[in-house]
Structure formats: C-alpha cells, structure tokens
Amino acid sequence: MAATTAISGISSRTLAISQPLVTLRCSRSAVSYSSSHRLLCHRPLSSSRLLLRNNKHRVQATILKEDEEKVVVEESFKAETFTGKELLGEESNTSSSSTSAFELWIIKLEQGVNVFLTDSVIKILDTLYRDRTYARFFVLETIARVPYFAFMSVLHMYETFGWWRRADYLKVHFAESWNEMHHLLIMEELGGNSWWFDRFLAQHIATFYYFMTVFLYIISPRMAYHFSECVESHAFETYDKFLKASGEELKNMPAPDIAVKYYTGSDLYLFDEFQTSRAPNTRRPVIENLYDVFLNIRDDEAEHCKTMKACQTLGSLRSPHSIIEDDAEEESGCVVPEGAHCEGIVDCIKKSITS
Q: What does this protein's record comment on cofactor binding (predicted)?
C-alpha cells in the first residue's frame, strides 16, 4: 500500500511538471495570426532540421508608422555584404546537426558568384546612367521583374511533370511581378523610356536575364533567390539615395496617375500578396506627390528583399492570405511537409524515381 502511494505521488508530480513543459513548447512553436495585434507568424515545421533552419533565417517585418518616412532594411540586404561570411560564422556551431561543411561551402560559392555578377552590372549602369536618373530606373524596373516570370515558368514545368506543386509560390511571385510592372509603368510615364537605346539595352538584358534565371532556378532555387535578393537590394539602395538627394524637389512635383491608381485603388489584394513579411491590410500608402511615389517604390523593394530572403529557406514561403485562411482551420499547418519539396531538377528527378 505504501509503495502504491509513493508511486502515485511520483506520477502526480511528474504530470504536474510535464504540463508546464508541454505548455512551454506549445507557446514557443505554435504560432497564430492575431487580428488584434496584426502579427504574421508561422507554425512549426514537421522536420526538426527545417525548424532549425527557419529559426536561423527568420525574416522580420518592418512596419511603417505614420511619422516615419523610411523603411529600415536589415544590413544583410546590402549587396556588398553578400559574401557568405556571416552565414558561415552563424552556422559553424550547428553544422553537425543542420548542414554539412560542404553545403556551407556551396552556399558561400553561390553567394560569391551572385555578388560578383550584381556588382558588375551595377558598374555598367553607373557608367551609362550617371546623370540620367529616370532612364536608369526604367532599365532597373525592366530587369527587376524578369526573375518572377522565370520562377513561375519553372514552377509550371515542375507542376506539369508532377514533381513540385507550390500554389503559394505562384501566387506570391505573380504578385511580385505585378508590383514591378507598375514600377515600370510609373517610370515610363516619367519619360524613362524616351530614348530608343535605353529600351534596346533594357529589353536585351532582360531577355538574357530571363534564361539565366531559369537555368539557375532549375539547378539551385536557393542561388536564384539570393541573386534576386541582391538585385532588389541594389534597387532599394538606389531609390533611397535618390530620395535623400532630391527629396525636397520631389515633394513639389505631382504624382503620376498610374501611381495614384495602383497604391490607393480599391483592389489591393495583389499589393498585399507580395509582402509576405507583414499581415494584409497593414500597409496603405498615401500618395500626395512624387516623393511619396518613390518612397513607396523604395519600400516595395525592401519587401521584395525580405520575400527573396525567406525563399532561400526551403519551404518557408507562404502567401499572407493563405496564412489567414489556414489559421481558421486548427489542423492545417503553414508549411508543406519536407517530402513534398525538392531543390533543383536533380533532386526532383531523384525523388520522383524513389517515391
């Protein structure tokens, strides 16, 4: 009888201890979308390895306040810092449990190549468009929207073969291309495409860039997304410098009609869709002059940077609207199981044969 009482006491104490532990784990991993606080989070991944990687690459939203005129972009978004050194230093202590030293070397190589290519194009643009701002912006926006076409092309091909079906990726990338298209329309309305040479150069660079991105995305989606992050980072820095240099002049100039229609229209679903680091309906621009237009274009580029950075972690991207829909269903998770993903065409073929 005494033994039974002792065992019962131990069991009750064990249960009492395990309950807060379970509660603690749930509080750290189970994440929800709260309409009262406008927080956009994600649920835990089904794989512990992916969970570790997601935690290390978590992207934080930067929410604009009414009295702010600037979006603060993380230092990692600056093109000159894409060397891979920070990544190696951050992951060296956990490489045995997450990624191998060889994989880290591959990541460093990919990022080094991307930085070299981005810096080379920037030097060419600096030489050709030193004093021609709107023409430079036209070329930038013609190039910047190309990767999203390339991503969707490859994703459609994967869907055709039944390898890789990511509806959220298609939604977000289309919304990104829609946003960049309106940037381009704004630059055209400002006269950035008035000279035939600028149109010729932008269109031919864009054509080459499309096929290059398709090739990169087939071989290594992570590298393709990182290259796009480099391009978007340069775009952010370019617009930020322009605002600082010509801000007062821009405040006295009217906003193009296409900008007013895009940023303040009644249907902003696609505008919310590409901003995966923030909740829908939390950013509503006010367009009163040309300064406000370029301010919001710059902030759009910051959001593209965050989305491209999130895409580099396998399976981490979700549509902001899908998260709201899934949050209403308690059993639905925010991330597709690891087995449904593949990294590049080689991995897709391998999984299609072995599955």
A: Binds 2 iron ions per subunit.
